[in-house]
Design brief:
single chain, alpha+beta, Serine Threonine Protein Phosphatase 5, Tetratricopeptide repeat, Immunoglobulin-like, 12 helices, 25% strand
């Protein structure tokens, strides 16, 4: 089945999915002394189940050799192989071995990401975006520079990729990244956030609104996020940024916006009753601050 894609939902051509895990363990345990054979096998395996974790010990052992083998795969007919080039080399792949060399210096993989940035498959482009987001955690200025370059003459798909890649930097208000997207210091007058009720019951929603007026003589683009300052166990507040919307304002234009944020059980957060707050982040700048009481009934 070389140079073809295997239907990952079918057993017609043999082992697939989780059934590949034992073979992956054999490759990483016994194959590090034979890169050529191991990578040939990993390339075929990834068509059945991703080998993004299995390639990482090889990158850790000899990064240059591993990348030289993977480089031609950017043109492989298999979407799974092309994605592996990006996903397998992510410096901070969740649940994967951290690639310390690439965390320190990601430049060796940049030509590979550039070769994949306009891949016809969203599956591949999404991996490239997530890879750049990884890089941004250690090299924010580099990713801002890449964003500015890639946005030149970008089609809709590439622009979407770059926006997803820079999501963390935009939330952080990284100035060079905001400039890459043409976002300037907001010139506005703001009323809000106006919390509709001073208390919010656990399991319901926090509802707030804003009245926003442009004070500049030219049109301006605004990216609006909001920040919920959740109470922690020790009583301090921990801010969490949430995406909201993008708007274009004409000179003097006023908009009224309303938002609901569900306060409900989720696996990644423990809620504590008491005073919390909500604020705004517009083009990376913080505005407003309104408190509310979270009511959690004892069970």
């Amino acid at each position: 089945v070389a140079d073809t894609d295997v239907d990952r939902a079918s057993d017609e051509l043999g082992i697939r999915g989780w059934g590949m895990m034992p073979l992956g363990m054999v490759v990483t345990d016994s194959g590090l002394e034979d890169f050529e054979k191991s990578f040939a096998l990993l390339k075929e395996m990834t068509k059945r189940a991703t080998t993004e974790f299995e390639v990482r010990p090889f990158l850790d052992r000899d990064q240059d050799k591993a990348l030289s083998i993977m480089a031609p795969w950017v043109n492989d007919p298999s979407v799974h192989v092309r994605r592996l080039v990006s996903e397998g080399t992510r410096p901070r792949l969740p649940w994967g071995m951290r690639l310390k060399q690439l965390c320190a210096d990601p430049t060796p993989v940049l030509p590979l990401l550039e070769a994949l940035r306009d891949d016809p498959e969203e599956y591949v482009r999404r991996s490239v975006a997530n890879h750049l987001n990884d890089i941004a955690k250690d090299h924010p200025d580099l990713v801002a520079e890449i964003a500015a370059l890639w946005l030149r003459d970008a089609d809709r798909n590439r622009e979407k990729l770059v926006r997803h890649a820079c999501r963390t930097l935009v939330k952080q208000g990284h100035s060079a990244t905001l400039e890459a997207f043409g976002l300037k210091e907001p010139e506005i007058s703001l009323e809000g956030p106006i919390v509709e009720t001073g208390s919010v019951e656990y399991g319901s929603s926090l509802t707030f609104g804003i009245n926003l007026t442009s004070t500049t003589k030219a049109p301006q683009q605004l990216v609006l996020d909001y920040v919920v300052h959740f109470k922690k166990a020790n009583g301090s507040l921990a801010p969490k940024v949430f995406k909201w919307t993008k708007i274009a304002l004409e000179p003097g234009q006023t908009v009224n916006l309303r938002r609901e944020h569900a306060i409900r059980p989720i696996t990644t957060r423990v809620y504590y009753g008491g005073t919390q707050a909500v604020s705004l982040r517009i083009n990376g700048k913080d505005f407003g601050y309104s408190e509310f009481e979270l009511i959690i009934e004892a069970t």
